[in-house]
Automatic annotation (TrEMBL), chain A:
Pfam families listed in its UniProt record: FemAB (PF02388)
Domain of life of the source: Bacteria
Keyword match Acyltransferase: yes
InterPro entries: Acyl_CoA_acyltransferase, FEMABX, PG_Glycine_Bridge_Synth
Protein name: Vancomycin resistance protein VanK
GO MF, one example: aminoacyltransferase activity
Similarity remark: Belongs to the FemABX family.
Keyword Acyltransferase: yes
SUPFAM superfamilies: Acyl-CoA N-acyltransferases (Nat)
PROSITE patterns xrefs: FEMABX
Automatic annotation (TrEMBL), chain B:
Any single Pfam family the record assigns to this protein: Ala_racemase_N
Domain Alanine racemase N-terminal span(s) in chain numbering: 16-170
Protein name as catalogued: Alanine racemase
Matches recorded under InterPro entries: Ala_racemase/Decarboxylase_C, Ala_racemase_N, PLP-binding_barrel
Gene3D superfamilies in alphabetical order: Alanine racemase (3.20.20.10), Lyase, Ornithine Decarboxylase, Chain A, domain 1 (2.40.37.10)
Organism, as annotated: Nocardioides ginsengisegetis
Superkingdom of origin: Bacteria
One MF annotation (Gene Ontology) recorded for this entry: catalytic activity
Amino acid sequence: MPSAPAVREISETEHLDFIRAQRSASFLQTPAWGRVKSEWRRQSLGWFLDGELVGAALVLYRQLPKVKRYLAYLPEGPVIDWESEDLGAWLAPLTAHLKAEGAFGVRMGPPVVTRRWSAAQVKEGIADESVRTLGDLPPTERGHTGARVVSQLHELGWRPQSVEGGFAAGQPQYNFQIPLRDADGTARTEDDVLKGMNQLWRRNIKKADKQGVEVSTTEGVVGSGDLQAFHDLYLHTAERDHFTPRPLSYFRTMTEALGAEEPDRIRLHFARHEGDLVAATISIRVGAHAWYSYGASSTEKREVRGSNAVQWAMIREALAAGADVYDLRGITDTLDPDDSHVGLIQFKVGTGGEAVEYAGEWDLPINKPLYKAFDLYMKRRG
Amino acid sequence: MSLTLTVSGDRWRTHLRAVAAANPGIVPVAKGNGYGFTLGRLARKAQWLDDQGLGVDTLAVGTYDELPHVAQRFGGDLLVLTPWRPFGAALEVDPSLADRVVHTVSRVEDVTALLARQPDARFVLEQVTTMLRHGLTSRELWAVAPILADHPRARLEGIAMHLPLAQGSHLSQVDRLLNDVVASGLSTTTVWVSHLTPDELTQLRSSWGDFTIRPRIGTDLWLGDRGALSVTATVLDVHEVERGDVFGYRGRTAPKHGHILVVSGGTAHGIGLEAPTGDGSLKARAATLARGGLDAVGFVRSPFSIDGKQRLFAEPPHMQASMLFLPHGAHVPAVGDQVDVRVRYTATAFDRVVVD
């Protein structure tokens, strides 16, 4: 890099313009996501090189109890040139800025891939008794850029936040994704993606179609009726599958905030069978990266395979939008058939994509005693 | 009249085979005094292991000066553990060995210098570990990839790590070092490591299954079955003494009635010379001091034992023999009898190695 970039606060408009110009950025780095996480102070930051905006970050400031000190959190970000061999030049002005804002520490999640495993490998891993976690399997690919980032972060004094076993407090380090382009960049066809799925998935998609399952998708800003319909089914799913549901207001904020950024940023999808809602999902897309975000399904009429139908509809939509990747989000790294999380992996593996490991979340302590106290507090909270 | 290392041949060979079989890709290390066996014998044994079908294609030596001792006895590749430098013995390698020798390179400038002299050189790149002896940092490793791009004939045979003795698990360090290899963009996926436990090796082979792990093993291979080895000295003379009798180079006097024993094994063999054991305790340090001050403080324990009991040096060891004091009442061995000796194999020069 010719000269070191400078960091300063930018407006949400500038921030959004920068995100729009990117091929890929996490939705957790959009200015709208800051509004979803309204319990934290948010700030849009920009990196400037010779007056030009070359990087951006959404920072969420999480306050420590009782003191006016913050953990500055950049979920799945920042959006900078991670291929740089001089990450120190990018990160030093960031931490200086955050320190001036009262941060005692920084946490970020570089959006770089460190390892990939094919669906076939994951499947074999689950069948192999000696394999307990993804890490026990040699990957199909190791990310060179990811390795450089990890190497440099160690060098710069950042600390990896271990994500052991299940989902830790932060963003998942392991995700399941379906690449929508071949290695040479050509877009895959619907047929090709379908062929990559396992037999059960293909059969279920066909079955749903035969049974007359119809999938509809919201256009533009999500209406309150649609949101209510999704949330009712989601509450039902939460009760059945024993997880704590988020309130309707959370989804309202999310659809409003994200929907205001781009008309197709966030969408709801409904699978209905003879008028009965059997599955509902939320998808998000930023540039060429499409995510499956939330899902819900009915207990009745499971045999019509609404969940498979709605997933297939979302995948087709991502393909039609020219996306590079369809992201089914977090999986745990367990491949132990006795682990309760393995079912989720198996469902995702059926889509024929790949398990992807990111560099994970990293901390930089700014005020060491405060950071230590915070770290201890988080560990105790477990 | 010798200080002898006796090897129970069958048992030793069985152990060697078992270690080689349990460690695919093993690189036996033959350096220094050859762990007491001599370099030549270890080289022949490494060849024998390969002949047994155990896939020992490379032998590691410590220094360039050790190459001539093993080159005729082992037919495979020869890895030199001391990093190559553009001076000294490294530049005097017998040209007939050039194609068999794998150099260890630990500085960026040495990569350039080595390839300038020998464009098709075979070498491994050593990474610096927490041991902080020789090696490239992660940044320096990155710098090597573009150099190699300019030397298409260079033969990079892998990455070398010299880990410190185990203090907890090495795996997190190895993971970091291997991540640095991926980050470097170097095309090699072979890694030569030392001092990993069998469990650590198993775990490494699974999580880095796309890499070839080559364990360098010395002590655990050659000296791993101590029961197969015995060290003996010969009783050369026995003198009965009364309290006050004068004996030895230094004209000491006997403290009480007993016997002076003259046994083979002295400073030339490494007897009585303390190699620090690495035990840093106060007691160990005091013991080292006491042995050093043998003359001043009286008799100290020797490594020779008779009837299972370690005996006292009557005076500091001579070059090839030692004098022991045996108090009255103890069994007195005869001239020609063998007595057991406890030694550090890596610091002892035996007169004879007998493999039976």
